[in-house]
Amino acid sequence: MIAEATLIVDLMLGALACALGLLSVGLSNLKQAIAMFIALGLILALIWLRLAAPDLALAEAALGSGVLGGLLIMASRGIKKPAPDHGSHLKNIAATSLSLLLAMVMGYASLELLSTDNRQLAEVLTFEYLADSGVTNPVTAVLLNYRAYDTLLELTVVLAACISVFIAGPQFLLTDKTAPFPQRLIKALLPVIALFACYLLWIGAKEPGGAFQAGSLLAGGVALFMLIGLRYPLSVRSLRWSLGLGVLAFLVVGLSSLLSGQPFFTLESETAGLVILLIEIAATISVTAALAALFLGGHPQRWYAHASKKEESS
Amino acid sequence: MILSILGFVMLALGLTFFLMGSYGLLRLKDNFSRLHALSKIDNLALGFTLLGTGLLHQSWLLGLQLLVIWLLCLLASATSAYLLASRLAEEQSP
């Protein structure tokens, strides 16, 4: 009976995800579409849980629903009612058939991925060498040891996005009036958020967690902090250093192994755990700074101009 | 055995309150009333669901964790309801 019940829940989750996806691209009201997208992020997090991938579920809930939802809402503020664009028939047919083709290819690829031979290979590669990798959580081992190059490139992409937003993005303004109730509440809640982010970072070596989850949680905290009118406590230069810290740490570790004659980013078994922890700390600081900066938009100089204007007027 | 049955009853109650709250969200006319329905969902329905889950697993540590989760959800929903309501009040009487 339990098996049928879980099958029903899985089918409902899948159907709900498809429906929400269709609604979020099909609705013409922008705010409704964004709400559907945020709900889709939540359903996807549940689906990741059902697929026994709690790390992905954490990252999806924090980034997909939380940060991305906030970013989309902020971005939709500046958009007036968009002109209804029906497109030509040919364009619609081409887009639909391309999407169907892509869906079929991805379905085939995921079925292939789940075939026994591929699975065994992945399990052997991950679990047999897990003891030497320095951590006991296989996801962290893959992210920060076996495929560390990918994580380095991810951090670089986030940094590049931040720089683009600094140069070209509009300023999402902080609110002028702050009610005392949310201020006191958020001031009380922020230590809890910080503690939980540190816990997620530390436990990433053993259990689901890690740098990106902790970073996105802390970025949410920083965004709350600035949304209620409190002043960003650090200087612009420290913001720049925080943004670059993740990539810097990765490059330092990678190049140092080049210096000792081994390929780029080789970790020794004995020191791997400590090195991974240090890289994760740097990556968390980077991700926090980057996501908070993306959320607030514009150049950091203008944040302080706004804050000092507020101080003069209040 | 008793605890498991009680757990299922709590889960069923939680589900009922979720359904009632969602129905209220869809069918109530005013935005303020909808906020009221949402807060009810967070209070009652989530509380019953977490209570049922704790009873089904019968572990003190899990029960304590679920209690903290419930309290944090209450805090978050109260704050967001307050913020939404104050924004709605601003828009209605400028």
Give an overview of the whole structure:
The complex is a heterodimer of chains A (314) and B (94). Chain A is mainly α. Chain A is 78% helix and 0% strand. In chain A, helix 2 packs antiparallel against helix 3. The C terminus of chain A is likely disordered. With 94 residues, chain B is an all-alpha fold. Chain B is 91% helix and 0% strand. Chain B contains three helices and no strands. In chain B, helix 1 runs antiparallel to helix 2 and helix 2 packs antiparallel against helix 3. Chain B is elongated, with a radius of gyration of 16 Å. The chains are: A mainly alpha (314), B mainly alpha (94). At the A-B interface, helix 9 of A face helix 3 of B.
Q: What secondary-structure arrangement, pairings included, does this model have?
A:
The complex is a heterodimer of chains A (314) and B (94).
Chain A: H1 2-26, H2 30-50, H3 54-77, H4 89-113, H5 116-128, H6 130-133, H7 138-146, H8 148-168, H9 180-203, H10 211-227, H11 236-259, H12 272-296, H13 300-313
Helix pairs in contact in A: 1-2, 2-3, 3-10, 7-8, 8-11, 8-12, 9-10, 10-12, 11-12
Chain B: H1 2-27, H2 31-57, H3 60-92
